[in-house]
What does this fold into?
Amino acid sequence: MTMDTDLATSAAPQPRIVLRAIMVIGIALSLFQLYAAGVQPLGLFFQRPIHLGFILVLCFLIYPVFGRDRPRGGLGWVIDGALILAGIAAGAWVPMNIDIIANQIFPRDIDIWMGILTVLVVLEGARRAVGLGMTIIGAAFLAYAFAGNRGELPFLADWMPGILNHRGYSLDRVASQMTLGAEGIFGIPLGVAATFVFIFVLFGAFLEATGAGKFFIDLAYAATGRQRGGPAKAAVIASAGMGSISGSAIANVVTTGAFTIPLMKKLGYRPAQAGGIEAAASTGGQIMPPLMGAGAFLMSEFTRMPYVDIVLVSIFPAVLYFGVVYLLVHIAAVKQGMTGLAAVDLPSTRKVLAEGWHFLLPLIALVALLVAGYSPMRVGFYAILSIMAAASAKALWSYATTGPTGAGFTAMCRRGIRLTLDALELGARNAVAVSMACAVAGIIVGVVGLTGLGLKFSAMMIAFSGGNLLLALLLVVIASLILGMGLPVTAAYIVLIILVGPALTEEFGLPILIAHLVVFWYSQDSNVTPPVALAGFAGAAIAGSKPMETSVQAWKYAKGLYLIPLFMVFNQEIILGGPLPLVLWSGAIAILGLVAFAAVLEAFLWRPMQLWMRVLLMPGIVALFWPNLTVEIAGAILIGVLLAINWMQYRGDTATSDGPALRPGSHQS
It folds into this structure.
């Protein structure tokens, strides 16, 4: 699903011929991407512009100029028709003229004009597919490039602090930077979107079209449904699996939340609580290996580290995040006296596996190929082939065991072809928003490279933080939240790492991988942190609750999003490795600290926790983050003693009463 899935019902119906055009172009784009991924890899100045041309045409067809809730009309078709032609020209110009462009010293006037046209259609496409905020930020960076004594807008230099001033650049220079090299629109962000991201978005579309999404949700229910708060725990598990593939926390909310949120409400969770739990769990899907949305691929490109290494070091932090959400969900269920669902209301694990075990094969193949060292693009290609093979084998088996007939075989083939075409179209549709965001991110990257803004921003960051790493990380959190108001998570990560990455690595001494992981994790906060909380708003729409109340709940359940990156910074061995005893110790105190934090937050673990215990737990938690072994040991002992007291009090409660431990409604959160 795409980020606009929840808006689909309010969109005005498109004419049949437009829907057919979207289908044909979407299928053509997906086939082109499959060809480039598995048959004949293309050079970057062929792959990226052609991909962008397809995406622009799809964007202007799917998103009419005056909005999706209004008919396009004659004027709309004149505008969109011109933009579609401009999109085709933008995608075709560089591949058709690559020899001339590569061998010339100065760009031709026609190259400059095509560069300007490409920038304009990219900004307009981003406005439609991603939102006005993305376009404004892209335009602001372009204006910054022009601001200076030698630029097109010299008067803007008077409005900027001295540290941000630069010489300014001409229209010709900026247009060349944007479209005639690998540091602008056709740079790393669009390159990642046009290769790794698209192929895995297409993989997710094939999973969705063949019914794999329902299989994973049913499996999560079967595994956890009988436990207290079972549907909420199923939401956590299902979101861990689906979110990594979907590439969007909002898409994850509307996919899994459509099933989990009504069941959570039925069990006793308040509507805002149910929507918040789903939003927090869905956000975690973006940090869950093996795909991590688009993050793992981008990190691999930026850090020049093997993709599989980034996936492996990301497993433990992701498990910690989902462990915290799971624990908070469990505590809420115990406090509110919930029970699990009855067995008759749950799918049978055996039956679910019998009907959908073949969906596990593509995931096994995907992981095996990644570990074997295949490139992510080739892995995605083979993963798509494997899911097609698994679904075909399952269909043939069902056909053979239900009395084969000629008519049945024809119907089965037609259904298989229809599902394949649907998946190819869905994958292309789902890629439009992320590709447009990455194209504008390329504009930002190009301006930063041209003007040296990254180093200037780093200097400002060091000045504001006074050289204190904790304050610098707080500035990253604030910046990510502000960027999240106008940018999707992927674009926010790209912009942030370009601006603050040099300071974190060169001035504060963070290893490059940890700097990227921290920025990527913090870039997720616009999904769950008020007043933005986009995933929280999507959860509220399904739960029928107030958006801000739901966002506060999402923020509470997603606390691991803030604490775990801090632990990476101050206990780097959990990412970078080290002596085995030290790694095990760091892993153990990470778990202990997060359990203690959940207990402080909810005032409950095995039983209600007294105020004095919560007050004493706080310095213990801080001690676990302290980069000193003696302080860590002291904190671990303090927390261990306090949690043991809570456990013994719980045992005393159960020994003196026939019922379960005290669950006062006054502690409901």
Residues 1-9, 660-669 have pLDDT under 50 and may be disordered. The chain has 29 helices and no strands.
